Recover the amino acids of this structure.
C-alpha cells in the first residue's frame, strides 16, 4: 500500500507531470461547450459584458454613485466572483463527472481538479477582457498597482485548488453538500460587497464584510485594479485561508484519498 | 521486471443509499453473489476476500467465474483504482486497462481530436500520438471520416477507431474485460491479429471472460473465482502452441 507521504507528493507533482493531460482535458471541455458556435468562448465575454453593463447602469442610479466610479468597481468584483463561484460549484460534481475515468485509470485526483480549474481560468480570462476594456476606457494609463493582481490571483488559484479538492471529496461522499454549496453561494453573493459598496454599511454592521472571506479575496484583486494598494489585512486573511485549506486538504487526503473511487 | 503481486488482498465495497437497507441488502445479495458484511460504517460488500497470488513476466492469465465473482473488481484493483481495504497489491510496469475502449471520447469532436483525447488518458503525450496518428487512421479504415464529428459515425466505426487507438501503444500489463472483437467479418479478422500482436508486445495479460473457449485459446493460466475467493488456479493444459 502506498504511503500517505507518497500520495501527497503524487498529488502535488501531478501539476507538472500531468500538465499535458489536464490542460488538454480542460481545453477540450471549453471546445465542447462552444462547439459549432462562431465566436466560441467569447460568448461568455459578451454575456458577462451585457450583464455588467446593464446592472452597472441601473445600480449606479439606485445608489446614486457616478457610473465612472461604480462600473469598474462592479465589473472587477463580479468577474472575480464568477470565477470563485463557478469553480466552487463545479468542484462539487467534478469527481462524479469524471467517474468513468476515475474507475478505469489510476490518476492523482489533482488531475481532475486542475482540469476544472483550467476550464474556469480560461473562462475567467475571457471575462477579464471586459476589465481591460474598462481600464483602457478610464484612461488612467498604466498603474504599478495593477501588478499586485498577479500575486493575488496566484494565491486565489491556490486557494481554489485546495477548496476544490476538499469539496470534491466531501461532495462525492455526501451528495447533499452539492446543493448546500449552491444555496450558500447564492446567499453569500448578497452579503459580499460586489454590487454594493462597503462604505454604505454603518460601522456597526461592518462585521458582515470583515467576517466574509469572499470580501477579502475580492478586495485583493479589485483594489489594485481600481488603483489602490490593498490593505495588508486582506493579504493576511487570504494567506490564512490558504494555510487552513491546505491543512484540511492534507487530512482529507491522508484519510480518504483512496476511498473516492469507492464512493462513485 | 514486470509483475503483479498480491497478498491477503481484501476489498470491501461500501453501499450507500441506505434508505431501504434490508431491501437493498437482499437485492445486492441476489445480484452479486459477493458476501455482504455489516460493519460500523454501514453495509458493505466484500468483493475480494483475502486472496493472494503473483503473476510474473510472460503470463497470460484468464479470470473466470460467474457474475459478481469479483473479476472486474480485481481488474480494477490491479489497475490501482481500488486501493486494498486490507492486504497489499504491488504492481510493477505500465498498465493499460481496456475496460472501456472509448473512455473520454466525445461525440461532438472529430475522430482526429478524439485520438488525442483518448491517448492523453492513457498517458501518451501529444508528440508521441502525432508519430502514430497516421497508422491509427489507416487501421481504423475511417478515411475522410476522421475529420468529421464522431456523432456522424456508426457504432461500428466509433468502436473501430477506439480499438485502433487502444492497440497502438504497447504497455507492460494489459487488463481486459472480455476479449475484444470489433467490426464486421473482414475487419474482425484484421482486428484479432492486431490484438494478438498488441498482447504479444506486452508482458502480462489479465483477461476476465465468460467464454471458456476464448480463455483456453489464449491464456497460459486460469484463475477461477467465486464469491471473492480464488477457488482454482491452474495452468492451461489445452493451450495450443
Amino acid at each position: 500500500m502506498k504511503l500517505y507521504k507518497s500520495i501527497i507528493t503524487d498529488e502535488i507533482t501531478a501539476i507538472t507531470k500531468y500538465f499535458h493531460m489536464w490542460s488538454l482535458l480542460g481545453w477540450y471541455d471549453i471546445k465542447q461547450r462552444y462547439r459549432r458556435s462562431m465566436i466560441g468562448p467569447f460568448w461568455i465575454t459578451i454575456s458577462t459584458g451585457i450583464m455588467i453593463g446593464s446592472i452597472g447602469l441601473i445600480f449606479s442610479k439606485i445608489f446614486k454613485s457616478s457610473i465612472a466610479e461604480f462600473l469598474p468597481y462592479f465589473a472587477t468584483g463580479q468577474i472575480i466572483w464568477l470565477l470563485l463561484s463557478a469553480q466552487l460549484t463545479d468542484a462539487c460534481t467534478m469527481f462524479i463527472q469524471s467517474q468513468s475515468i476515475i474507475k478505469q485509470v489510476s490518476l492523482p485526483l489533482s488531475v481532475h481538479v486542475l482540469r476544472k480549474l483550467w476550464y474556469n481560468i480560461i473562462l475567467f480570462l475571457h471575462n477579464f477582457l471586459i476589465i481591460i476594456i474598462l481600464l483602457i476606457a478610464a484612461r488612467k494609463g498604466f498603474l504599478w498597482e495593477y501588478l499586485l493582481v498577479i500575486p493575488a490571483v496566484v494565491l486565489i488559484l491556490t486557494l481554489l485548488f485546495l477548496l476544490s479538492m476538499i469539496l470534491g471529496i466531501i461532495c462525492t461522499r455526501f451528495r447533499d453538500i452539492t446543493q448546500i454549496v449552491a444555496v450558500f453561494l447564492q446567499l453569500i453573493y448578497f452579503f459580499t460587497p460586489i454590487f454594493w459598496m462597503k462604505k454604505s454599511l454603518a460601522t456597526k454592521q461592518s462585521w458582515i464584510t470583515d467576517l466574509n472571506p469572499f470580501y477579502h479575496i475580492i478586495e485583493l484583486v479589485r483594489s489594485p485594479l481600481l488603483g489602490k494598494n490593498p490593505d495588508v489585512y486582506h493579504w493576511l486573511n487570504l494567506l490564512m485561508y490558504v494555510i487552513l485549506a491546505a491543512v484540511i486538504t492534507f487530512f482529507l487526503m491522508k484519510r480518504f484519498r483512496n476511498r473516492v473511487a469507492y464512493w462513485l | 521486471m514486470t509483475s503483479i503481486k498480491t497478498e491477503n488482498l481484501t476489498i470491501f465495497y461500501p453501499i450507500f443509499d441506505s434508505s431501504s437497507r434490508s431491501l437493498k441488502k437482499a437485492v445486492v445479495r441476489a445480484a452479486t453473489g459477493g458476501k455482504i458484511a455489516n460493519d460500523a460504517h454501514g453495509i458493505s460488500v466484500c468483493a475480494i476476500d483475502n486472496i493472494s497470488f503473483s503473476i510474473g513476466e510472460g503470463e497470460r492469465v484468464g479470470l473466470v467465474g460467474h457474475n459478481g465473482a469479483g473479476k472486474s473488481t480485481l481488474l480494477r484493483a490491479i489497475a490501482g483504482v481500488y486501493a486494498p481495504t486490507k492486504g497489499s497489491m504491488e504492481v510493477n510496469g505500465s498498465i493499460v486497462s481496456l475496460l472501456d475502449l472509448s473512455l473520454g471520447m466525445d461525440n461532438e469532436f472529430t475522430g482526429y481530436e478524439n485520438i488525442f483525447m483518448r491517448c492523453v488518458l492513457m498517458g501518451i503525450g501529444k508528440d508521441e500520438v502525432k508519430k502514430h496518428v497516421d497508422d491509427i487512421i489507416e487501421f481504423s479504415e475511417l478515411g475522410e471520416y476522421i475529420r468529421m464529428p464522431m456523432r456522424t459515425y456508426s457504432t461500428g466505426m466509433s468502436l473501430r477507431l477506439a480499438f485502433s487507438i487502444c492497440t497502438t501503444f504497447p504497455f507492460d500489463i494489459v487488463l481486459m474485460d472480455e476479449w475484444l472483437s470489433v467490426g464486421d467479418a473482414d475487419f474482425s479478422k484484421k482486428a484479432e491479429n492486431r490484438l494478438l500482436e498488441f498482447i504479444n508486445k506486452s508482458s502480462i495479460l489479465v483477461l476476465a471472460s465468460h467464454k471458456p473457449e476464448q480463455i483456453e485459446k489464449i491464456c497460459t493460466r486460469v484463475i477461477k473465482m467465486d464469491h471473492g475467493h480464488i477457488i482454482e488456479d491452474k495452468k492451461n493444459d489445452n493451450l495450443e502452441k
In short: The CA atoms of residues 9 and 108 of chain A lie 10 Å apart. Chain A has a mean pLDDT of 91. Residues 4-263 of chain A form one domain. Chain A touches chain B at residues 1-2, 20-21, 24-25, 28, 31-32, 35, 100-106, 258-259, 261-263 (CB under 8 Å).
